[in-house]
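User: quick one, sequence for these tokens?
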């Protein structure tokens, strides 16, 4: 059997390649960049190996954890597992903490903080959302804000809990975000077994968590991972795909395109229609403080500020923090010095123990970080099987019940391969 060719060595493409290799199917992975991993990869900043963006990983990521074990990694050695404890600090309201305990189901685990800081109305409002998730998933999709307003959510819960969580998980504001997807995220994370809500805090960079080991696994089983080879075009000749790169060609009867949606649309344009999504940016600001600086929690949410989520990276580099700003806004155009000054001032206001300014800073802007997970986008997400026989698609945009996540990328890669194998004679 000739190798199945995969264009794109992001997490979804690598998951597909690992699954094929596991079944003894030869595979060739072709990546245009020098480094594998796609939008979840290692970035060099001085002596530090940092990530091009913060990807929250939780215990419910069963496909990811299983895939790590397949390629020979031990999740217990790479992650510190913590019961979810996300403080949500606000300049307008008293703090809330998102929790899920092993002995109290959500939202009962938050009942006392909600009762203490907001009264019985907040407790009952949270219960209304939890109770009506199954009902919502059986109805026509709507925006998150429409769903919240229908269930009479108080403005405080919307501003301090639901809106930040929605923007963090879907990278889409509540006015446009899909309620189906957001409800699925809540249900998967908080309404299942308690360990599904655990935070997985990595002690290594993203490339070390999966891509490097995946590439080694593929190569050990006779496959190839080819980098720095941008595909120029794809032609189809007698049920064979001719893939033309820079001074090189490949040929296969089965082709998986596993690039980001923007590049996918460019490659598919001569052959099939592909619904291009709207994109949403994410800005990550790394701040290096003195090594003794540390926050009480690994992840802290902020509302009413430009800073949205603060990740304490001391498990990798003491004194290092990553501040995440999801979604569109004027900050995208700020110069680095201006952006760093604003973020550092906000952190100092919330955490006076931190110096007024960091020792060093580094800004990463991903203008097409994820697809915008709107109601319209969720309805039009394509599936991995195309109208062209032998042509398959996978990435985190391909249809599933989740937003753009590493878990969704791996799930789609595996499911795509399972469909291919089922279709072969």
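Assistant:
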């Amino acid at each position: 059997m000739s190798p199945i060719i995969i264009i794109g060595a992001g997490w979804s493409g690598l998951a597909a390649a690992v699954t094929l290799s596991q079944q003894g199917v030869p595979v060739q992975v072709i990546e245009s960049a020098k480094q594998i991993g796609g939008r979840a990869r290692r970035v060099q900043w001085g002596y530090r190996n940092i990530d091009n963006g913060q990807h929250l990983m939780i215990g419910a990521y069963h496909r990811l954890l299983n895939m790590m074990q397949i390629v020979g990694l031990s999740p217990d050695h790479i992650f510190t597992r913590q019961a979810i404890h996300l403080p949500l600090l606000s300049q307008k309201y008293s703090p809330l903490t998102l929790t899920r305990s092993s002995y109290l189901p959500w939202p009962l685990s938050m009942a006392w903080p909600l009762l203490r800081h907001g009264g019985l109305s907040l407790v009952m409002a949270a219960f209304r959302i939890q109770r009506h998730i199954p009902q919502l998933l059986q109805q026509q999709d709507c925006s998150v804000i429409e769903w919240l307003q229908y269930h009479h959510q108080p403005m405080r819960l919307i501003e301090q809990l639901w809106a930040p969580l929605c923007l963090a998980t879907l990278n889409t504001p509540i006015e446009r975000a899909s309620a189906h997807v957001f409800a699925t995220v809540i249900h998967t994370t908080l309404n299942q077994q308690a360990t599904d809500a655990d935070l997985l805090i990595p002690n290594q960079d993203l490339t070390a968590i999966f891509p490097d080991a995946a590439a080694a696994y593929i190569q050990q089983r006779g496959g190839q991972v080819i980098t720095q080879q941008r595909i120029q075009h794809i032609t189809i000749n007698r049920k064979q795909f001719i893939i033309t790169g820079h001074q090189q060609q490949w040929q296969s009867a089965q082709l998986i395109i596993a690039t980001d949606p923007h590049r996918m649309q460019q490659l598919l344009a001569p052959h099939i229609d592909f619904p291009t999504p709207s994109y949403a940016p994410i800005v990550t600001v790394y701040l290096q403080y003195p090594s003794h600086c540390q926050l009480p929690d690994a992840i802290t949410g902020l509302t009413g500020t430009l800073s949205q989520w603060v990740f304490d990276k001391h498990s990798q580099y003491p004194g290092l923090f990553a501040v995440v700003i999801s979604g569109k806004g004027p900050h995208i155009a700020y110069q680095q010095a201006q952006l760093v000054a604003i973020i550092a001032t906000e952190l100092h206001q919330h955490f006076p123990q931190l110096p007024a300014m960091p020792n060093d800073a580094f800004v990463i802007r991903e203008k097409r970080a994820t697809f915008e997970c709107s109601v319209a986008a969720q309805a039009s997400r394509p599936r991995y099987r195309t109208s062209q026989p032998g042509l398959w698609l996978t990435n985190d945009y391909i249809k599933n019940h989740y937003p753009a996540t590493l878990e969704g990328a791996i799930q789609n890669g595996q499911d795509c391969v399972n469909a291919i194998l089922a279709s072969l004679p």
